[in-house]
């Protein structure tokens, strides 16, 4: 609504009756509480009215007096006088502007170098980083643009528990919206001392162990978030195309082709080549090499023909499967032109017997050798099949074990601050003020730690708030632990309270002094896992 030319988001009425000539403590707290709750960049309007209907002139005087008193009170609290506008006509009132950009996060980032884990991988082969918490980060081959054989150092800061969120200051909000986390990481890759990014088009994978991701069936509801540090907090931005996936469905196992039952059939194609008669004759020493060369080319001269006949008898040729004598050189020439492959040597009975005997023995030897080769080949192939089957079974068992041990996978396309989160969609929200009785703004953490979900968010304050920490948009009805801590050297001032979030809650915490060691133990005991 427009008041004094200003769009006012909140109105506060102050009683200025005769019985109430000044501001009492309750009214001052109410007025200040309304200012603290006001979001930055907005105006608040304080008006004055009489609930009794007494003398109007006294009421007008009281309202002017209260208007000035209220202005002085706000200035004493730290509100800049330039942000206060007073009006006395027709009625006394004032409006106050809450300047933007003055909010200070009740948080600071502490990456705890002693908890960083170091790994080394070969860029050509890729590699895995198995963290102390049991999760695994897989990098594919040639994930980094720094040479195939380069050795890449991986630094991993793993932040999984809510106590770790508090210690490191890695809270869970995205542009003011509350996130439920399954784990946060800060991952850095170094080559020769220089930081390197993932190669464009390459993705690494964070694989969560089963005990670190209890609601496996809800994995697809979680996305990869990347965080940027700004004004003392990590603001997480969702990567909509990178979702966590559950691997427990056996349909997602790598495909293995099914083998038919029964003995595997192995076939071997054998090409037989026919041995020419001339080569056979050479083998049993019936003719010399020179003659065989001539016979193969069918160019026997008349002299050679007569010599061959004189030494071995008549040549013959096959006709209808039966040997028929060749009686003259002219007949040999005629047959050699028409059917050169049918010409045979004429063997006498003794030669034929020896030939048949030797040929049969040779044939048996060859058959035995061929059978031996066949059996050896079958055995080799069977061994290969069995070895491949064993390798496939081992691979399948290894994959199944991997999926059982790491049932949830989250892809990441860049390094840095990484979070596996989902949005909390509770629509019933309220603002909460946590008031501290003592504080040190140099190092202060104030958190709302959710009991039933892995989420920690920090409050914020302004210098003029003086110990009042504001939380915006907390889900009503959720059980949280409010925790505040300020630090000076080894001394910690700490306060905490567990309760359900109520509408417009105003929580008051009294800080007590502890040592750092006691503070660490309290965190582990106090914060639910």
Low-confidence stretches: 1-5, 249-298
CATH topology of the largest domain: Chondroitinase Ac, Chain A, domain 3
Could you state the oligomeric state of the chains shown?
single chain
Instruction: Please bin the fraction of helical residues.
Output: 25-40%
* Alpha-carbon Rg, integer: 47 Å
State the separation between the terminal residues, measured CA to CA.
Answer: 46 Å
The CATH architecture of the largest domain is Sandwich
- Major sheet description: 12 strands, antiparallel
Query: What is the CATH top level name of the largest domain?
Result: Mainly Beta
Average pLDDT, to the nearest integer? 79
Q: Bin the strand percentage.
A: 25-35%
Number of domains: 4
Number of helices: 9
The count of strands amounts to 30
Per the principal axes of the C-alpha atoms, what is the gross shape?
A: rod-shaped
Secondary-structure-derived class = alpha+beta
Note down, in words, how this protein is organized:
- With 529 residues, the protein is of the alpha+beta class.
- The protein has four domains: 2-99, Translation Initiation Factor IF3; 113-247 and 406-423, Chondroitinase Ac, Chain A, domain 3; 287-346, no CATH class; 429-526, Immunoglobulin-like (Sandwich).
- The chain has helices at 25-37, 56-77, 162-168, 277-283, 289-297, 302-312, 329-338, 349-405, 516-526, and strands at 2-3, 6-15, 43-49, 84-87, 93-97, 104-105, 117-122, 127-130, 136-139, 151-159, 173-174, 177-191, 194-196, 204-208, 223-230, 233-246, 316-319, 322-325, 343-344, 408-412, 416-423, 429-436, 444-450, 456-458, 460-461, 468-475, 479-488, 491-500, 506-509, 512-515.
- The strands form six sheets. Strands 7, 8, 9, 10, 11, 12, 13, 14, 15, 16, 20 and 21 form a twelve-stranded antiparallel sheet that branches. Strands 1-2-3-5-4 form a five-stranded mixed sheet. Strands 24-23-27-28-30 form a five-stranded antiparallel sheet.
- The chain is rod-shaped, with a radius of gyration of 47 Å.
- The two termini are 46 Å apart.
- The model is unreliable at 1-5 and 249-298 (pLDDT under 50).
């Amino acid at each position: 609504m427009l008041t004094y030319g200003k769009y006012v988001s909140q109105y506060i009425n102050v009683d200025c009756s005769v019985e109430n000539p000044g501001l009492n403590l309750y009214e001052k707290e109410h007025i200040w509480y309304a200012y603290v709750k006001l979001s930055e960049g907005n105006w608040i309007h304080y008006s004055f009215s009489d609930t009794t209907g007494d003398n109007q002139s006294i009421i007008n005087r009281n309202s002017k007096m209260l208007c000035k008193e209220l202005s002085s009170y706000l200035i004493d609290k730290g509100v800049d006088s330039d942000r206060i506008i007073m009006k006395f006509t027709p009625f006394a009132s004032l409006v106050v502007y809450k300047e933007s950009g003055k909010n200070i996060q009740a948080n600071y980032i502490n990456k705890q170098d002693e908890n960083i884990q170091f790994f080394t991988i070969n860029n050509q082969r890729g590699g895995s980083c198995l963290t102390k918490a049991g999760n695994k980060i897989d990098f594919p081959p040639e994930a980094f643009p720094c040479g195939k054989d380069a050795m890449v150092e991986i630094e991993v800061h793993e932040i999984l528990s809510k106590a770790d969120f508090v210690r490191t200051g890695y809270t869970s909000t995205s542009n003011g919206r509350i996130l439920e986390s399954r784990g946060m990481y800060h991952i850095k890759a170094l080559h020769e001392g220089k930081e390197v990014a993932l190669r464009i088009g390459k993705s690494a994978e964070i694989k969560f162990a089963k005990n670190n991701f209890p609601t496996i069936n809800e994995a697809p509801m979680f996305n990869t978030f990347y965080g940027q540090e700004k004004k003392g907090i990590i603001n997480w931005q969702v990567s909509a195309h990178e979702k966590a996936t559950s691997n427990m469905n056996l349909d997602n196992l790598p495909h293995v082709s099914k083998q038919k039952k029964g003995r595997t059939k192995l076939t071997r194609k054998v090409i037989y080549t026919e041995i020419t008669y001339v080569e056979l004759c050479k083998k049993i020493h019936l003719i010399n090499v020179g003659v065989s060369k001539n016979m193969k080319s069918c160019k026997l001269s008349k002299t050679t023909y007569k010599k061959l006949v004189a030494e071995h008898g008549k040549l013959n040729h096959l006709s209808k499967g039966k040997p028929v004598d060749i009686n003259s050189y002219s007949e040999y020439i005629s047959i050699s032109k028409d059917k050169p492959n049918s010409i045979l040597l004429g063997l006498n009975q003794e030669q034929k017997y020896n030939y048949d005997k030797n040929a049969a023995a040779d044939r048996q030897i060859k058959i035995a050798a061929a059978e031996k080769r066949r059996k050896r080949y079958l055995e080799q192939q069977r061994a290969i099949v069995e070895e491949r089957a064993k390798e496939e079974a081992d691979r399948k068992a290894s994959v199944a074990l991997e999926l059982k041990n790491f049932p949830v996978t989250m892809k990441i396309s860049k390094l840095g601050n990484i979070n596996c989160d989902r949005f909390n969609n509770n629509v019933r929200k309220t603002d909460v003020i946590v008031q501290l009785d003592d504080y040190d703004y140099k190092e202060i953490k104030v958190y709302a730690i959710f009991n039933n979900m892995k989420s920690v968010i920090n409050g914020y304050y302004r210098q003029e708030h003086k110990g009042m920490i504001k939380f915006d948009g907390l889900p009503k009805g959720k059980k949280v632990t409010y925790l505040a801590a300020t630090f000076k050297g080894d001394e910690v001032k700490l306060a905490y309270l567990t309760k359900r979030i109520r509408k417009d809650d105003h929580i008051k915490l009294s800080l007590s002094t502890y040592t750092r060691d006691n503070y660490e133990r309290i965190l582990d005991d106090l914060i639910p896992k």
